[in-house]
Amino acid sequence: MANLKNVTKKTKAQAMGMHSEVLTGRTQQKFFNPDEAENFYYFGTYDVDFNKRTDLDVKNMTAAEANKELDNLMSQGYGTIVIKNPQGKHSLGVGILNKLNLIFEGSLGYFGMGSSDGPIVRINGRVGWSCAENLMAGKVVIEKNAGSCFGAAIRGGDLICKGSVGARTGIDMKGGTIIIGGDAGAFTGFMMQRGRIIILGDVGINLGDSMYDGTIFVGGEIGSYGSDAVDSKLTQSDQDWLRRKLRVAEIGENFDVSKMKKIVAGKKLWNYDNLEPAEKKGAI
Amino acid sequence: MCGIAGLIHRGKSSNVGHELQGMLQALKHRGEDSTGYALYGDTDGKNFIMRFKVGENVGEGSTSVAEDVSVYDERKKIVDSYLAEMGAKIIKEERILPYSLRYEIEYNKKDLLEFSQKIESIPGVEILSMGKSLEVIKDLGNAKMVCDRYNLDKLVGTHAIGHARMATESGVDIKSAHPFWGYPFSDVSVVHNGQLTNYWNNRRALENKGMRFMSECDSELIAVYLAEKMRDGASLEEGMKESLTGLDGVFTYFVATKDSLGMAKDTMAAKPLVLYESDDLVAMGSEEIAIRSILPQEIDTYDPFDGEVKVWQI
Q1: For the whole model, what pTM was predicted?
Q2: Is 2.160.20.60 the CATH classification of the domain at A54-272?
């Protein structure tokens, strides 16, 4: 083992084998040390008070101006912010890394709430393509419909649409839960790697196409299964989890989850083959 | 990328020129190489309106070759003589730009194929639209520029479709701009967002059946494809449903006739479309902000699903 007493904090972590990469330039990487209070600070966040509430009318603002003002309000400690007149603007509310109660009184365009980590968001309208893409934590509730690529590549959090969603919902998702109250379009769960998708209504063609892992629950009809997506047995614990999730999401509380279909990865695709390419060649 | 927008007022007329301009201008970030309008104006329905061009716009980043303006005059003279030969009487004539003209024509034959072939046999002449209410106006630049250039802001009608184009596979010129007229059918127009991958196979097959292509823009295929289906007796909606399998690639397109507006989305649902539907108005566009330009209040919109075809009547 390396001489840990004589190495700097940065190289110590590497010497212990915690990681091997050497990052340069601007990075958010933090080396944990409980003695240093500064390490509890999460880059780009503010201490906010949920009881401190304000409105923000973005009617005459660009998305960049609106997001900057949102950041400004959080820096002043506002923990509950109501956005008025979003009017379908793109990229509103992106990159929020704070605990925050955020309410949109209207619809969002593309990429709304993308790359967020922590906020509790209610959108009293519709959202366009790629809503909450890369969501890491928190909860986003959409009262109406959503466009395609809903929850693309999310890592965590709960993403709830009370209406219907377009195609490729949960594409490439790596964690978290997506809940759809209505129908979902084609290629739902396309290449998903982890996480869960719940659809109470019908779903389009190629469900779960090329999914690596994760689980999809469907309450209605399935247009067709995608490559390597297969049925699985719905267990009692699945049902308990579904009931709890739907109750917390305030959606489909009385839905009969016992009749839902459970779809998982069959794991028969090439990427599940343990052989190295050269070995595979030999085997063939 | 390209953006498309369309609207139809049911049971009434409105200032569709102004409304579509607002919708397309909201989508200008999706492409402003050229912008096109297909407007269905209020007319008495007696005469044909022919929009045609005798040359290209060679400014504003055009890929066209500059020509002497006197050539345009020569071509116009030949058009006039051919019209007289075919028994078409010019009721009103407007030369909006040196290369762009609008004629109101009294012409009693129903079949426009022979008519169109004769006019377009003149090199450099292309009919942009022919119909009793349809007027296709397309040129280089964004929606506002084209609208101002052609004075479209005051045009009153029932429905309209339009296109903001980012040129990808064909030139920056008027002939490749959308909308495309559903040649040789009166009052049929098409706009498209996407890419068709079996363009050449379909084009060869359709040309062998006597259909005409004016550009090398893949989107023109949709207009010609639907025109051929309708020539063979299919309804517009039937033709659109067949296009979901007959056309390969990714697409969302709108098609309009004198009394209807339709949309179709491919089975991959790879191209965006947001739709607002009420009893007296249907508005749709590539992005919600297009609809918001005419309906700023909170409304219910949705994305049509994959493989969906819808048609609305005025």
Answers
A1: 0.84
A2: yes
